Amino acid sequence: MKNDLFYNIDLNRVPSHIAIIMDGNGRWAKNKFLPRAAGHKAGVETIRKVLKECKRLNVKYVTLYAFSTENWKRPKAEVDTLMNLLSTYLKNEVKTLHEENVKLNAIGNIDELPSKCVEELKKGIELTKNNTGCNLNLALNYGGRMDIKNAVIDIIKDVKDGKINIDEIDENTISNHLSTKSIPDPDLVIRTSGEERLSNFLLWEVAYSEFYFTNIHWPDFDEKELQKAIYTYQSRDRRFGGIK
């Protein structure tokens, strides 16, 4: 595979978990004098390319920030377009994901999504639940603050029920009550389109993640750009607060 690489990546040090804030669909469309819906459709094509490359490079976990709790504030027509694209993507792609041994998962309050999205999502999760390849996690109706709040509520309930001793609560207790409890923390967080903020994404989990920001809009983010992000990640000295 090394002959196919754009960058001199060490394939033995590829990040295990890459989380991506897919930003810039609307700006990409605007630059091309197209409706925002066209940008979102182009973004779906990028998901296919990036996921395929992640699998090829043996990235074990990919988490995509697909729809945040704040995205409901967007115009109804755009939200409807996003939901239609989600259900269409799941309907068209789940069989292929299953054939490629990808395990589909979702984090966030998915029950508040349109019923057609929930149905397709649950069907996909059920179909792929025993797969052992790359794990694709879709963050849908997800917000980091909401997730932490829900974890605190669940911990309080467990204390009241005698399942947890309050003196034994530690960081692992909180991690194990988040919607990401079955997913390792991200090694690398990528955000496209020039913004340099988390936008309420995985606030607890990214405490020691490496961040990579690029001006490339999500629809233009391809295999070469992914490799560039990984190459940059591998140049970092990850000490986790200690000294090497």
List the helices and strands and how they pair.
Elements: E1 17-21, H1 25-31, H2 36-56, E2 61-68, H3 76-99, E3 103-107, H4 115-128, E4 135-142, H5 144-160, H6 171-175, E5 188-191, E6 210-213, H7 223-234
Parallel strand pairs: 1-2, 1-5, 2-4, 3-4, 5-6
Helix pairs in contact: 1-2, 2-3, 3-4
Q: Identify the strand order in the major beta sheet.
A: 3-4-2-1-5-6
Instruction: Specify the overall morphology.
Output: globular
Order of helices and strands: EHHEHEHEHHEEH
Instruction: Please report the total strand number as a whole number.
Output: 6
First-last Cα distance: 31 Å
How many H/I helical runs? 7
Cα-atom radius of gyration: 18 Å
* Structural class assignment: alpha/beta
Stretches where pLDDT is under 50 for at least 5 consecutive residues are: none
Strand % is 5-15%
| Mean model confidence by pLDDT | 94
* Major β-sheet profile: 6 strands, parallel
Helix content range: 40-55%
Question: Can you describe this structure?
Answer:
This protein has 244 residues and is α/β, with parallel strands linked by helices. The protein is built from 7 helices and 6 strands; from the N terminus they run βααβαβαβααββα. A 6-stranded parallel β-sheet has the order 3-4-2-1-5-6, with helices on both faces. The longest helix has 24 residues, at 76-99. The chain is globular and about 60 Å long.
